[in-house]
Amino acid sequence: MKYGVVAHHYWDRAGGGQLVCAAAARAFDSAGYRPVLASVPAFRNRGRYVEWFGIDLSEYEVVTLVNLKLRAFGIYLRLFVWVPMERAIEKYSPEVVFTDECTYRPVEDSLKKVRFVEYIHFPFEVAVDRRFRGLGLYYGEDQYVAERYGRFPMNAYWWLFTKLLPKFIRSNPFEVASAVLANSRWTAELAKQVYGERPEVLNPPLPPNVEVVSEPKPFEGRTNSVVMLGRFSEEKRYHWVVKEVLPKLRREVGDVKLYVVGSAGTRTSYLYVSKVETLARKTGFRVSRTLSEESDVYLITDAPRETIKNVMDSSKAFLHATVNEHWGIAAAEAMARGLPVVVHRSGGTWSDLVNEGRYGLGYGNADDVVERLVELLTDGKIWRAYSERSLVKAGEFTLEKFSKKLLSIVRDLP
C-alpha cells in the first residue's frame, strides 16, 4: 500500500486551507496513494466535509498530536503540526507528503527523504520579519493583524507566538521541499521576495459541491441586494461595509439589502458577529440573524449550501472586502453562480480571480465600492457582461483540473 500524508494544523473548519488539503487528499487517493491526514487536535468533523465541500474524507487514516477537540489558541496549533507529520511518516513511510504549513523545522531531515510538497497560502515571514516592513503586510501594517492583534491582550498573544515561531518555522522551503507551490500569482511574487525563488502557481479548486451554473438567474429576477460570503472574522471587514459602504450605497440606490453569510465555529467568530450586529444597529439598520425577518442587514451563520445558493441567486452583486486576500475562494464560489464580483484591488483575488479587472470589478476605497455596486445594481447590460465573465473564469477552477496539475507535479519529482 502506498501512502500520501496531508498535514494541516486544524481540520475542523470550513476554510480555504482545509479545502486545499482535502482536495490534495482526494488527488492522492485518485492516483493510488492512501491518504493519511495529519492534524494537531482531534479531527471530529470529517463527516461534515461532504456537506461543506462535497469531499468525503471519512475513510482516511488520521494521525494527531492530541485526541482532544481544541477550539482556541489557533495560531499556536501551527507550531506543533510537525509532530503529527513525524508520527505519520514513521508509521506509514509515505511516498509523498503535502502540507500548507511552514512550521516543520524539527522534521526537515525526514521530509528531505520523501517527495515533499509545500503549498503556500501566504509567506508568513512577511508578517513577522522586520526586513519586510513597508510592504503593508508586516505586523502593524496589515489591517487584519493590526485589528485582531493590535490591542491587549491579543498583542501579548501575538508577541509570544512570534517569539516561539523561530524554533519551528523552516528557513527556506526551496531548501527542503521537492516542490513549492503557491495559491496565486500575487502570493508567488511575494514568496519570491522572501525566498529568492518563485513557487509554481496552483490555484485552489472550487468545492465539488459548488456547480458552475449554465444559466444563472437573470438580472430582472433578482433583488437590489449585495451578498458577502466567508467566515466571520476581522479580516473580512464586514464591519467596514456596514459602517462605511452600505449607508452611502443606500443613499444612491435606496432599499438595498446586505447579506453576510459565513461560518462561525469559534467564540472569536461569534464575538465578531455580535460586533457587526451592534455596529449595524448603531448605524441605523435593521439586523436579523435569520432570513425569515424583514431587515436591512442579514448575518447568517453556518448556513447550509442550499441557503448560500439561494442568497447568491437572489442578489445582484458579490462584494469581497478583504484587503490583500491571498486567494478568495468565496469570490470564486460567487462567480460559479454567475454573480458579478467586486473585489479590492490587491492580493490574489485581484491578480488571479478577476485578472486585474478582466473578469470582475475592483475598488480602492468606499466611494469606489459604491460606484461599482451602483453599476451592477442598476444597469442590466453591465450586469450581464460581468455575469458571463464570472462563469468563464469559474470554469477554470474544478477539482479535476487541480488534481491533474498537482499529480503531474508530484510525478515529475525525483
Polypeptide structure, described:
The chain is of the alpha/beta class. It is built from 17 helices and 14 strands. The protein has helices at 16-30, 49-52, 74-78, 82-92, 108-111, 125-128, 143-149, 154-164, 185-195, 238-253, 267-282, 305-314, 329-336, 347-353, 366-378, 380-394, 399-411, and strands spanning 2-7, 33-39, 61-64, 96-99, 115-120, 179-182, 200-201, 225-229, 257-262, 287-288, 297-301, 317-320, 341-344, 361-363. The strands form 2 sheets. A 7-stranded parallel beta sheet has the order 3-2-1-4-5-6-7, with helices on both faces. Strands 10-11-9-8-12-13-14 form a 7-stranded parallel beta sheet, with helices on both faces. Helix 10 packs parallel to helix 11, helix 10 packs across helix 15 (366-378) and helix 13 packs across helix 16.
